[in-house]
Amino acid sequence: MNKAVTTLSLATALLIPGISHASNLSYDFVELNYSNTDLDNFSDDLTGLDLYLNKSISNNVYLLIDYGSFSVGTPLGDIDISGISLGAGYHYPINDKTDLYAELAFQESDTERAGVSIDENGYGFGVGVRNKLTDKIEGLVFISHTDIEDETDTSVDVQLAFEFAQNMQITGGIDFEDERTSRIGLRFNF
Length: 190
Description:
About 10% of the residues lie in helices and about 65% in strands. The chain has one domain: Porin (Beta Barrel). The protein starts with a helix and ends with a strand. A 10-stranded antiparallel β-barrel has the order 1-2-3-4-5-6-7-8-9-10. About 10% of the residues have low confidence. The radius of gyration is 20 Å and the shape is globular. The longest helix is centred in the first third of the chain and has 14 residues. The chain is mostly beta strands.
């Protein structure tokens, strides 16, 4: 009987890792990034800042806010784009260094050119893997899909974060979709 209970306990621990492992990854942070998007049909790049805020509301669920403001110069004047995402995420620890996670968010964007403003909204969702590669380095891969008005995009985001002080990380990443976006930033975990 004890052997059967021990075997069942071991099998459960292996099949349901979230119960047997707690992740060492933080979902409570604020992050500021400088972004640069290489646009195919423009001589200038789209550049700007992104501000992220994540806050856990339970062991596995967190809320997220992402606000960005970007611009690109054209011969006919600047194009300014701002956007906000409000949503929630769920992470599932595979072990103490790796999480699977998913996010769903409402998205709104405003594009302004020559005094004309266009507001659009939609949604986005995605799934990813975060991993504590070493004590100081974290990596992630995130595949997302957005649907805003009549446009849809699917992208792959690859990011590294280096902890240079307690609760402080330098982040860098590349987002691959129709155009490539590179970014570098600073994250504070709280």
